[in-house]
Amino acid sequence: LGRGLAGVDVLRVTEVYAAGEAPIAGADGRAICRAVRSRGQVEPLFVARVEDLADSLRDVICDGDAIVGYVSILCDPDSRTDYWVDDIMIDASMQGRGYGGIAMDAAMRLILREYPRCDAIRLTCFRANTNAAAMYESFGFRRTGELNEEFQEPIWELTGPALDSYRRSIS
Questions:
Q1: H helices, E strands: number in the chain
Q2: Measured distance CA(83)–CA(121) in Å, rounded
Q3: Beta pairing partners, 90
């Protein structure tokens, strides 16, 4: 299954539901994502709630009719600080053309428009991705000193005066 799904442009995976059978341990949506990710051809996005699937597709990044990447967000509207840019993925052949910055700006605008309570936007940036780190710094993000539980990579945050400045610049 992982091999068959690895050749797509964009992949969203929901939880696997048993068809009247007992669930199989380890055969779930996150396992499918890991299998596809291990092939290194596409970065799948796990969508925990099937009702969130349509929203997860609204931020596909296109150049004409070609998909060049996507951005996804995860937000807790009951929180003031649990607002995440979960993924920004740009096709390797399209990197360095400004799509990452466009995606980041779109994600931040979406969060601030739909969640006015937001006092912090957070993300995880892999240490080896120095180009992305430089882009996040240009938006005002700073490392928090925390590590992402899944990947043990640094968490970055835009908050306080930097977030307020960005919020004013888009209003």
A1: 6, 8
A2: 5
A3: 69
